[in-house]
């Protein structure tokens, strides 16, 4: 507060006078010393102290040689003189062209935030006696400049100290501008392991197999022999035959195409490197082969997520080390996010549909049920087949009549009964062949002469085993069978079908 105002207060001037004086002071153009000092400081702090330390155009750069804690590599302009670059140390790996170009363009009019100190006697206090990275920029006129990267600024960790050639002048540069030269050469690898085809260029689906150490079966996926609305274009053929849930299975059946890594770890790995990353005997192997292609993905050791900002790891797997075969330019060990690797955790039950069979009711000639030796046949009549559709692709055929042993049943009630039958639970796949004889057999006879057969065997007082077309495939709750048999009686009596079990 200035002296004039203090005098007014001390003298006890009335509140009205004080307000008037304050209004007068606020209306004048003059400022107090404190105000002037504050304004002066603000002016200094907003002053641009940046300085260009590499003055030549990036168009004149012919190569950049990098040496850092990870090794040495160079980025060279192609002999044609065009704006394409090559990194010999990547070997046969596909390079990330955008990263190469960005590294070079980053050096165009390269600025430091400010000059820190000139005529430095002790470069070690800036970490520049033994730089963490050196980059030598060579130009088309034959000149070259070397930029040395020192330690991180203790006052602002976003910045690092740098110097040029043998000069004793130190500058401060944003760390992100220097990451191109402190990163390993693997940072310039293309991380797309298999390019995703365009919508009109997808190859014909062949066969995908998934083997994993934690599963006692192999999963196999192939083209669906029958195109069925709402189901995937592929089916599971091992360990059981099953239709797939299109939503849950697409990442498994088609996730190989467009697969990308989060980092490249080891270029052209030898046997030792493969073993160190769990890839000589991988945890999981995925093979996708078809006409003109054969891809193999090996999934090795996991990498666990850390807890917050700490270095302590959790039980959550964040990524896996992987090796990909069948594509040129990817001879390296990559780190791939666990989110991109459904094959590392997926189980058969996760991708199959809830339908054991996919027979449309209008395509059936009859449904035959044999329970404890007694046969019941439901004869179905319809106005057409599931292939009869309208302009929107919806089936126009309708079930017109259902009879059993000469008695006509309520069509809508039979549809509900059939819906319950089609909902036979598929949440537990099972491979151990049952003993004894089946106590319930359901046969779906289609108009085209084909059929599906469900044979149900006792497994325990609470579980039954299902063979589908002769193959042991599922284990279900015996209560489902109990309700199904009770529904047969309800259907015959014209009572409502129960869909709970």
Search tags:
DUF4340 domain-containing protein; elongated; nine-stranded antiparallel β-sheet; disordered N terminus; membrane; 27 strands; eight-stranded antiparallel β-sheet; 20% helix; 10 helices; alpha+beta; 501 residues; 35% strand
Describe the protein.
By secondary structure, the protein is α+β, with helices and mostly antiparallel strands. It has 10 helices and 27 strands. The relative contact order is 0.07. Keywords: Membrane, Transmembrane, Transmembrane helix. Residues 85-182 form the DUF4340 domain. This is DUF4340 domain-containing protein. Pfam families: DUF4340.
Helix-strand blueprint:
Elements lengths: L2 H8 L4 H13 L5 H13 L5 E4 L6 E8 L2 E7 L7 E2 L10 H9 L4 E3 L1 E4 L15 E7 L4 E9 L6 E6 L5 E5 H8 L24 E6 L6 E5 L7 E8 L3 E4 H9 L8 E5 L3 H6 L7 E7 L2 E14 L6 E13 L6 E6 L10 H4 L12 E8 L2 E9 L16 E6 L2 E2 L2 H12 L17 E7 L4 E8 L4 E6 L2 E7 H16 L8
Helix pairs in contact: 9-10
């Amino acid at each position: 507060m200035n002296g004039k105002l203090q005098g007014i207060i001390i003298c006890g001037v009335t509140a009205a006078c004080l307000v008037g004086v304050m209004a007068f002071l606020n209306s004048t153009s003059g400022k107090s010393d404190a105000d002037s000092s504050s304004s002066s400081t603000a002016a200094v702090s907003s002053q641009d102290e940046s300085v260009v330390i590499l003055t030549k155009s990036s168009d004149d750069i012919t190569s950049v040689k990098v040496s850092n804690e990870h090794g040495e590599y160079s980025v060279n302009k192609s002999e044609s003189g065009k704006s394409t670059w090559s990194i010999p140390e990547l070997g046969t790996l596909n390079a990330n062209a955008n990263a190469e170009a960005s590294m070079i363009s980053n050096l165009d009019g390269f600025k430091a935030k400010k000059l820190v100190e000139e005529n430095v006697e002790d470069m070690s206090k800036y970490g520049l006696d033994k730089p963490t990275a050196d980059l030598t920029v060579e130009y088309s006129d034959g000149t070259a400049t070397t930029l040395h990267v020192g330690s991180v600024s203790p006052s602002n960790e976003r910045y690092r100290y740098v110097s040029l050639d043998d000069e004793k002048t130190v500058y401060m540069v944003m760390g992100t501008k220097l990451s191109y030269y402190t990163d390993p050469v693997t940072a310039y690898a293309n991380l797309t392991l298999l390019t995703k085809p365009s919508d009109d260029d997808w190859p014909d689906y062949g066969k995908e197999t998934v083997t994993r150490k934690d599963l006692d079966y192999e999963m196999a996926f192939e083209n669906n022999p029958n195109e069925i609305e709402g189901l995937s274009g592929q089916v599971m053929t091992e360990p059981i035959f099953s239709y797939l849930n299109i939503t849950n299975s697409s990442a498994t059946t088609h996730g190989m195409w467009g697969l990308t890594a989060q980092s490249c770890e080891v270029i052209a790995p030898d046997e030792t490197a493969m073993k160190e990353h769990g890839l000589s005997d991988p945890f999981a192997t995925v093979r996708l082969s078809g006409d003109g292609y054969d891809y193999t993905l090996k999934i090795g050791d996991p990498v666990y997520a850390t807890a917050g900002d700490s270095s302590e790891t959790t039980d959550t797997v964040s990524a896996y080390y992987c090796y990909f075969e069948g594509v040129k330019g990817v001879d390296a060990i990559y780190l791939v996010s666990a989110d991109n690797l459904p094959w590392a955790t997926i189980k058969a039950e996760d991708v199959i549909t809830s339908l054991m069979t996919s027979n449309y009711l209008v395509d059936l000639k009859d449904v035959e049920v044999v329970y404890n030796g007694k046969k019941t046949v439901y004869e179905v009549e319809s106005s057409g087949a599931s292939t009869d559709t309208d302009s929107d692709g919806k089936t126009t055929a309708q079930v017109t009549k259902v009879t059993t042993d000469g008695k006509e049943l309520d069509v809508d009630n039979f549809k509900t009964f059939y819906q319950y039958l089609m909902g036979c639970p598929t949440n537990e796949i099972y491979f151990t062949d049952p003993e004894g004889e089946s106590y319930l057999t359901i046969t779906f006879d289609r108009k085209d002469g084909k059929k599906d057969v469900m044979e149900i065997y006792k497994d325990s007082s609470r579980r039954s085993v299902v063979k589908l077309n002769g193959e042991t495939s599922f284990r279900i709750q015996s209560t489902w069978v109990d309700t199904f048999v009770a529904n047969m009686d309800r259907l015959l009596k014209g009572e409502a079908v129960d869909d709970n079990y």
